[in-house]
């Protein structure tokens, strides 16, 4: 049996860029956690060393998109309209996790928040707030 | 690193471009993505990420992933902030806002230009656009703020130690 959730999680594995980042999806019910295992090519500051802000942003963006796809029971990924990323702590050379919360799904636009953390869930390294075009809005109205 | 160096006049021309390119060369992620810095002026940089299959976000359409554009814009914005400095110091993103105007044309390289329009002592403000043909027809637009001298007081390998709790 493949539920929409599982299909969405499998869809991540088919995204070439998600593979480049090494993303892995963990699903508990309808809640998704994306794991980005540490890899040397994700480093942005080799001195500290710290993860590149861009990959942390990308991780949260994929998480937000996927959680929204699950919440809206859509087969297709929504389109990003904008993302606002706040960096809270430097990303250590460790595995990074991200979860997203769908704040509102409107007729055309959905509002989603995401957070990324490493060792401690209570110590997020970055947060994202984004607007996405709901997949239904792309379809021609019947 | 920079503490021992005497203040130097801001360099321009080829050596400065090389310095800015070296920044990208020593960033493992920028290397992995294949980000190139193509042109540089004080506080402004131009760069691109060449199209590659593994950077695609939607296998059905072949459109490059939004995350790649996020990374390119973040990297170029940071580079623009450093390119405006007399004595280069590391920067870290405080926040980054990206508007996605349209999907990138499949198979095209993504170009971007970033402008650091205010370089303060503690914070640098940068904006950037990403495009696949001309800057007038952008794929995405970014506004970012960076902490200047983000390694301040932290030694090499600081992030390898356990955080104080």
Description:
The complex is a heterodimer of chains A (142) and B (165). With 142 residues, chain A is of the alpha+beta class. Helix content of chain A is 28%, strand content 38%. Chain A has a single domain (4-138), classed as Thiol Ester Dehydrase, Chain A, CATH 3.10.129.10. A six-stranded antiparallel sheet of chain A has the order 1-2-6-7-8-5. The longest helix of chain A is centred in the middle third of the chain and has 19 residues, at 53-71. The relative contact order of chain A is 0.19. The model of chain A has no long low-confidence stretch (mean pLDDT 89). With 165 residues, chain B is α+β, with helices and mostly antiparallel strands. Chain B has a single domain, classed as Thiol Ester Dehydrase, Chain A (Roll), CATH 3.10.129. In chain B, 22% of the residues lie in helices and 35% in strands. Chain B has a six-stranded antiparallel sheet. In chain B, strands 3-4 form a two-stranded antiparallel sheet. In chain B, helix 1 (14-25) crosses helix 3 (66-83). Chain B is globular. Chain A binds chain B through residues 14-21, 40-50, 52-55, 57-59, 61-62, 77, 79-87, 90, 92-93, 119, and chain B through 1, 26-32, 53-59, 64-68, 70-75, 78, 90, 92-100, 103, 150-151, 154, 156-160, 163. Strand 5 of chain A pairs antiparallel with strand 5 (91-100) of chain B.
Element layout with pairings:
The complex is a heterodimer of chains A (about 140) and B (about 160).
Chain A: H1 4-14, H2 16-21, E1 24-28, E2 31-36, E3 43-45, E4 50-51, H3 53-71, E5 79-87, E6 96-105, E7 109-117, E8 124-133, H4 135-138
Antiparallel strand pairs in A: 1-2, 2-6, 3-4, 5-8, 6-7, 7-8
Helix pairs in contact in A: 1-3
Chain B: H1 14-25, H2 28-33, E1 36-41, E2 44-49, E3 56-58, E4 63-64, H3 66-83, E5 91-100, E6 110-119, E7 123-131, E8 138-148
Antiparallel strand pairs in B: 1-2, 2-6, 3-4, 5-8, 6-7, 7-8
């Amino acid at each position: 049996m493949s539920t929409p959730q599982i299909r969405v999680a499998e869809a991540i594995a088919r995204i070439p860029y998600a593979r480049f980042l090494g993303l892995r999806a963990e699903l508990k019910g309808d809640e998704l956690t994306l794991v980005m295992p540490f890899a040397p090519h994700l480093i942005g500051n080799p001195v500290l060393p710290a993860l590149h802000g861009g990959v942390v942003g990308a991780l949260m963006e994929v998480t937000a998109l996927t959680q929204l796809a699950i919440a809206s029971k859509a087969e297709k990924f929504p389109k990003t309209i904008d993302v606002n990323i706040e960096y809270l702590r430097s990303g250590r050379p460790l595995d990074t996790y991200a979860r997203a919360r769908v704040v509102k799904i409107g007729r055309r636009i959905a509002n989603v928040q995401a957070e990324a953390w490493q060792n401690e869930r209570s110590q997020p390294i970055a947060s994202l707030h984004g607007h996405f075009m709901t997949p239904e809005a792309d379809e021609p109205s019947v | 690193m920079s503490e021992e160096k005497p203040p130097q006049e801001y360099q321009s021309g080829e050596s400065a471009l090389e310095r800015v390119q070296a920044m990208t060369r020593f960033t493992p992620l920028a290397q992995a993505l294949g980000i190139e810095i193509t042109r540089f002026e004080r506080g402004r940089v131009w760069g691109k990420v060449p199209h590659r299959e593994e950077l695609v976000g939607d296998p059905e359409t072949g459109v490059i992933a939004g995350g790649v554009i996020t990374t390119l814009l973040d990297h170029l914005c940071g580079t623009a902030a450093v390119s405006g400095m007399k004595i280069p110091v590391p920067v870290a993103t405080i926040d980054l806002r990206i508007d996605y105007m349209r999907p990138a044309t499949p198979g095209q390289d993504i170009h971007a230009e970033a402008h650091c329009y205010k370089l303060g002592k503690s914070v640098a403000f940068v904006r950037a656009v990403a495009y696949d043909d001309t800057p007038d027809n952008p794929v995405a637009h970014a506004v970012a703020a960076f902490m200047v001298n983000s390694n301040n007081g932290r030694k090499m390998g600081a992030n390898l130690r356990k955080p104080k709790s």
